[in-house]
Structure formats: C-alpha cells, structure tokens
C-alpha cells in the first residue's frame, strides 16, 4: 500500500520506520507525538487530492498539519498530510490581496506585505500557521480596531472528501466559504487562502511590565479602565511566572510579572495619550511601548517561537468588574500558588462584534473578554491543570459567556465540548455544511 500511495504523489511518503517520519509529523507541542500509518509531505494541491482518494479507497481517516500549533491530541491512525512545503506567499499590491499556501506562517506574509506599506490582520504570534489560525476565526492584537482575522479572507482553495478541488468564495460555494471562516475543521483540506491586506506601516504598540507586588493595582486599574477604552485600542493583560531558565531574558528570568499588552494603529501622539492612564497604574518595571513597525507586531505579545511543552485552555466572559478581579487575584495575585505559566485576559468588543457581509461561522463575537490559560510543566498537564481550570471556571460562573473562540478552547474532551465553541444557530449550520461537503466524515471535526 505504501508504494501505491507513493506512486500517486510527488512529495515523500513516510511510514513509522522511516527516518523522515518523526520530523515531518512533529508539531509545536513537544508532548504530543503523532503515529499515523502514513505521513505524506504534500507538495501540491494535486498531492492532497491523490492522498485523499487513497485514504477513501482504503477506508482511512485523514488529518492535516502545517506548523503543528494548537495540536493537543495525538493522531494515531490514517493518513496525516503535512502541508509544510506549501509555504508560498505572494502579494498583489493593486488589489491588496495576499495569496498564501497552507504551510506558510504569518512572519513571511507580514514581511512581504510590508514592502508595499500593507499588513495582514494576523495573530499575536507570527510563528503560527496562517490557515489553521484563520479557520478558527483569529483573535489577534488588533482585534478591537480591525476585528476577527478571518473577516479578511476572500477565498479558500480546498480539496473535498472526493478528492475534488473547489474554490470557496462569497460567490462560489458560499455555504462552504461561510463555514471556513471560523468553523475550524471537518470540511476538507485547505491548500491555499487569499487574504485582504490593510494599509499599515507602523502602530503605537508593545507592552508594559509591572513587578509582582503591583499585580492587584494593575489588574484592578485595567478592569476599571476598559469600559472607557477607545474602540481602536486593543489591550490584554497577563500574569506570567517565568522559570529560572537560561533562555529567559535576564530581566524576566525567575520573576513573576503582570504584562499589559497594547496596540493602537495610529499616531505616536494619540497612542501615547491613550496609554497614559495604563502607564500610571503602578511603578513600571519595563516600558516596551512605543512606535512599532508593522513588521515587528510579534513584539506586542512576545509569544515563544520554538517548540516546547504546552497546555492551553480558555473561557470567554460577558463582562469584568471588581468582584471578578477579587476572585481572579485569589488564583494569580502576588504570592498565590498557581499551576499556570500564564493567565491572560484579552479585551474584545469593538470591531470584533461586527460580522462580515453574508455572515461567518466565527464563535464568540458577543463575548467581551477572553481568558487564556497556559501551562508549560508536563507533569501538571493531565490532572493538575485541568482540575485547577475547572475550579476556576466554577468560581467565574457569574461572568462566563455561553460562547467561545475555538482557537482558545484548548484540548477538546469530546465532540460535544468541541461544538460548545459556537452558539446554537452557528453550530446547527456547521453540522449541515460539514455533512454536505464531507458526508463520509473522512475529516475529523475537531
């Protein structure tokens, strides 16, 4: 069977005993090891189509991976399509549209767009794969000023369960296009995406760091400030407990800090004015906020860019207030014992709550805040972190939203948990669209 598959594709095919199997199937989360029957390093849309046909003929499930971000569950059977080689990026400055292969990360897209004074509405990490991020909607550092990242998608190239290549746009297969903008998975394999860019050369952005003893003052001050925040200003706040490892920059190594992230796509003068109340919340430890070229947007969040052990989870909130702050401080305040490396609160609202013409499958538009939880110590992944999170969720019940962003859900316990990321109407329509384009359930919808 291996020879049969290899004869149908131009990219290499690996089985578990091959030297290239492990590196080709490796993802960003080093605690997750995939072990499918076949790994196909596709080099074209045609390769994807042939691999899917092979899988159908042999009753094998199909999975896909590009950069491997967001991978929480090992793939243990079937055919894994690695799209790393589909990393092409091209910019049409006349139409302001970027054409991006399924294996590309945000970093080269940002670099190419910047040559024309343009930028994509990307995620907080430019190391993340473009397609996987966009399929989940995408809540990035400009979410309040520019909205959800998938709102800027104008077309997808996708291979269906029958091995047929379709173009999904607002005019062609509009139901599929609707689902791909936020519905995450279960439709087919995306090989290329076209994204509308915006004019943006620089912004006033970066982050402020405050020492551990100021966590309460900064958290309470930020909670008080958010209702009056300008709709063009996007912020988040994160309590971070850095381990004493050599790869951590000396100013943060072994320290607990509260990090306030800030992004305003406008002038330095206006940005500084908007940031002034936040700078004054407590004595600053590090001030890394100022004019930032669009090519350096990754410096706002400073997410890790090397594979590491990681556990994530999240929840969405309808609102925050001082009672919420009191509850949260019991978990992450100065001196509190917590299993989390980071607990982040992202302020939503603004342009995030405005859906695109024709609608989209993005979940969580009506939430006003997003809680992101990150663990990095593997012995805590199976029981301690999930248990702590359930306890935190119970305490935060008065503020919880019934919606969620699928990209922040973390490890889906089951299909029901996966589906909980969308409100009822979107969830029902997603089931219909998935059933139409993948009636055989060849692609797992999680």
Task: Explain how this protein is built.
The protein has helices at residues 2-6, 21-25, 45-57, 106-114, 130-135, 143-146, 174-180, 215-225, 268-279, 322-332, 384-395, 415-419, 424-437, and strands spanning 13-14, 38-41, 62-65, 79-82, 89-92, 97-101, 118-119, 153-159, 165-168, 189-196, 198-199, 202-211, 234-241, 256-264, 286-293, 311-317, 342-347, 369-375. It has 446 residues and is α+β, with helices and mostly antiparallel strands. The chain folds into three domains: 5-82, 2-Layer Sandwich (Uridine Diphospho-n-acetylenolpyruvylglucosamine Reductase, domain 2), CATH 3.30.43; 89-199, Uridine Diphospho-n-acetylenolpyruvylglucosamine Reductase, domain 3; 202-420, 3-Layer(aba) Sandwich (Vanillyl-alcohol Oxidase, Chain A, domain 3), CATH 3.40.462.20. The protein has a seven-stranded antiparallel beta sheet. The radius of gyration is 22 Å and the shape is globular. The mean pLDDT is 96. Keywords: FAD, Flavoprotein, Oxidoreductase.
Write the layout of secondary structure elements.
Elements: H1 2-6, E1 13-14, H2 21-25, E2 38-41, H3 45-57, E3 62-65, E4 79-82, E5 89-92, E6 97-101, H4 106-114, E7 118-119, H5 130-135, H6 143-146, E8 153-159, E9 165-168, H7 174-180, E10 189-196, E11 198-199, E12 202-211, H8 215-225, E13 234-241, E14 256-264, H9 268-279, E15 286-293, E16 311-317, H10 322-332, E17 342-347, E18 369-375, H11 384-395, H12 415-419, H13 424-437
